[in-house]
Amino acid sequence: MTFFRCLLVLLVMFVAPPAPAQDDPFAGLASGNFDDVSAAIAALALSGNPQAAATIGALQTDALFAGPEAAVYIRTDDGWVDARTGQKAEGVNEDDLNPVRVNNAVRRAIDAALGSLNLFSSSATVRAKAAEDVFRSRDPAALPALARAIAKENDAGVRSVMVQARAAARLADPASSDTDKLEDIAVIRARGDIEALGLLSSLHDQPAEVATAAAAAIASIKRSEQLWSVAQSVFYGLSLGSVLLLAAAGLAITFGVMGVINMAHGEMVMLGAYTTFVVQETIGAHAPALSGWSLPIAVPLAFLVSGAVGIAIERGLIRFLYGRPLETLLATWGLSLVLQQAVRSLFGASNREVSTPAWMSGAAQWGGLTITWNRLTIIIFAVMVVAALMAALRYTALGLRMRAVTQNRRMAAAMGIRTPWIDALTFGLGSGVAGMAGVALSQIDNVSPNLGQGYIIDSFMVVVFGGVGNLWGTVVSAFTLGIVNKFLEPVAGAVLGKILVLVLLILFIQRRPRGLFPLKGRAVEA
Amino acid sequence: MASVRTWLRGACLGAAAVALMLGVVPAVTPSAHAQGGPPIKIGILHSLSGTMAISETTLKDVMLMLIDQQNKKGGLLGRKLEAVVVDPASNWPLFAEKARQLITVDKVAVVFGCWTSVSRKSVLPVFEELNSLLFYPVQYEGEESSKNVIYTGAAPNQQAIPAVDYLAANEKVQRWVLAGTDYVYPRTTNKILEAYLKSKGVKDEDILINYTPFGHSDWQNIVAQIKKFGSAGKKTAVVSTINGDANVPFYKELANQGIKATDIPVVAFSVGEEELAGIDTKPLLGHLAAWNYFESVNNPANKQFIADWHAFTKNPKRTTNDPMEAHYIGFNLWVKAVQKAGTTDPAKVIDALIGVVVPNLTGGFAALMPNHHITKPVLIGEVKGDGQFNVVWQTPGTVVANEWSPYLEGSKDLIADWRSPMSCGNYNVVLGKCGGASK
Asked: Do A351 and B262 touch (CB under 8 A)?
């Protein structure tokens, strides 16, 4: 009896830390139960098994499959690989396999595990991301790995993220000493972002000293957060303003300069977005190497497509209706319905996916400011489009003629300018600019036949507020409306905010019917 | 003023003219007279143009497929079935006109149609006045039961409440953002959810309610607000009743601001396979949806349905979704009830429908209850990288609909039972009489 007891103790000592799943964590992966899979991942990450990183990585990309008798395989481009050995597996029948399914709890376990495994990667970006994952998972089990990684780390930037990750993990560990915890709170306070705030707020049942330090850190982060939030709102406003500006820039030409109430303007934007979709599909099918460049390629094409449609509309419809605004309004509105339904029949009613290139995805953190790359790109693009438009009006021969015709049609005709031709080209230019706006909007909105409808009212609002016929007015008005909207929205809510902006605008137009920057001079008075 | 009115009228005429040009006229499929008399007409009332076309066109197609299949099986009561398709063009008043036309002019035996609640409310008086029959296939806010409508979509307790329970139990969520589009379905659902969460001890400061207009496309500060709300040290989740077109920009903004499902999961009630088709789903891995059916459900009936659908549409990429399953169930319920009643007369079919049981596509059965709603299983799915859902949880059995929510003051004492002798859609159990709230 004593012998058996002794054996048992010995056994326990050798197998420690004991947990049945840890005998073979791979069996846990094949269990089909989310809790067991999570436990198996944690065990695998700690086991030091050379196959751990590959197996957990496969799980992340849905490439891990469980077979009969707890066999686990990884699907690779050239066949099946046995996850336990890393060797090629022969004679695997896909029908016998089930994918190892993943839910959010398992995904968290994967992030935490890969976090501690990738801390020793050779790439600094991977190490930094791994440290960030540990920071989010706050898993005390990663502490020994972190300590080794920090000692080895040469890159100061990555090192500081690792120190933050260690602070997060230590704060979550009930065994840490109070001095360590105070030091950790200082580290987290210095990080100062919204994640730091979340982490500090989640600390409960701490010793008095630690709790006070945490409360002070929370207060300090909240204060700076409030200051940053003003800057953040300005960025949101600029971003909304740039979208409004893009949508309205074309209208500033067709409505502002030519005086045509074009209700089909939104559909020109929509055509630009669908051009982007077609360009992306074509490049994907015929020249996949260029797929990162599909947006820049789509910009001139969208200009041409929408511009050509614009010229056709002017020649085929609008030129018969000059001087009759109500009829123009109705005709172009009908036309907008026709264009929508045409696109719907051609491309189908459902949304089309225009993918975002890698360089436009994600966000940069700058102090307390989150700047999303796609929004920043759109702001820059909007400014470039308007600058190009202004330059075209000011410095090209066509621009000169356009201005001549809009300022004094009869005199321009007398000077030998073919005014009907110029009308068509002007309308085409405005429509083409709308098409370029569509390329940008395909990145943030639905590419659907209804895309344009959402922007038509806003576009008219911007042009009227800015002063009809004045491109600078359109620029100022778009950014003003964007920023006012974004400061009102958190206070009043999105619905009420929109209503308030509209009411303010009506009041403003009552006082200054010609908008912010009215055109002056004899041409206007006449 | 007169001129404004004139051109408004003109605008209306113009729209009608355009609609006519585009072929928005009833399309009657060629009829093949079978041995047992003239064909049975089935009305399909789904928008094929306008904003809702994105969702409703698919439902028209699935109805055509179901009717075609039934005809291949020899029709019904020895007669062929014939579809009468009309296009209400996402225009709510037009729904009522088209419904009246289907019933009085085309003399259809039954109508399958509507998507939005407002379109259903618009046709409701028509169906009640003419005592006809409508099958409504979309999840909705409840608080309604009509003699002439069969609700094959989910009531809030067949979708929203189990989803919240799942998050509270499995993700340990303690703080809730209820984000929705500003109209009747999200407002009612959120009212029910708020009352439900409070009954479970969630405090006021742990609930954030946010409404946005239809088609909202600039989500920057709302997403930032959600992120901030989620940094209070308690696990936070978003319950989204955001509808239609606003979803794509919302999810894109979530992805761009780096909110992952492992940090702040979003569970949506209006996002299915069809809506995900317009987005790159890789950044959305793990966000959730609650439905009664997912295309990825693995069972023979569903595999057959998907194969039939691909063959019928000649497009191997067309997705299937929850409202399609609802029409599948609804059509089979109707077929069975007609066989039971031996006639297509709506009055008799309505009586025969209650208690009819047909298989659903998730491996169970759907029974039509006396409240004119069907029993449904509730499934929670997580978004996968390929635009499909991975079912991570489901109710052990099917759930009976609470058409009147027990969590709302005005409706907690009401029940609906369309069997005689009660035959009432809002019977007050406290007052013991039909019609009206308890106050």
From this structure: no
Q: What is the CATH number of domain B21-154+304-367?
A: 3.40.50.2300
Burial-class residue A347 by CB neighbours within 10 Å (0-12, 13-18, 19+).
middle
What is the residue-averaged pLDDT of chain A?
86
Q: Which CATH architecture has domain B157-297+379-394?
A: 3-Layer(aba) Sandwich (3.40)
pLDDT in tens, A474-485: 999 999 999 999
Which residue carries 């079919």 as its tokens?
A: B349
Cα-to-chain-centroid distance, residue B430: 31
DSSP A59-113: HHTT-EEE-GGG-EEEEETTEEEETTT-SBPPS--GGG-EE----HHHHHHHHHH
C-alpha of B292 from chain center? 11
ipTM at complex level: 0.81
Does the distance separating the beta carbons of B54 and A356 come in below 8 Å?
no
Question: Which residue in chain B has the smallest CA separation from A499?
Answer: B213
Q: Do B257 and A489 touch (CB under 8 A)?
A: no
Residues A23 and A90 in one domain: yes
Split at pLDDT 50, 70, 90, the class of B35 is low
Q: pLDDT tens digits, residue range B37-47?
A: 899 999 999 99
Tokens 């399953």 correspond to what residue? Answer: B325
Contact B18 A448 (CB under 8 A): no
Please indicate, yes or no, whether the overall pTM of this predicted structure exceeds 0.90: no
Mutate which of A445, A488, A496, A499 to test chain B, going by most B C-beta atoms within 10 A?
A: A445
Domain containing A22 equals 18-102
Residue type, A300: P
Residue B178 · residue B193 · CB < 8 Å: yes
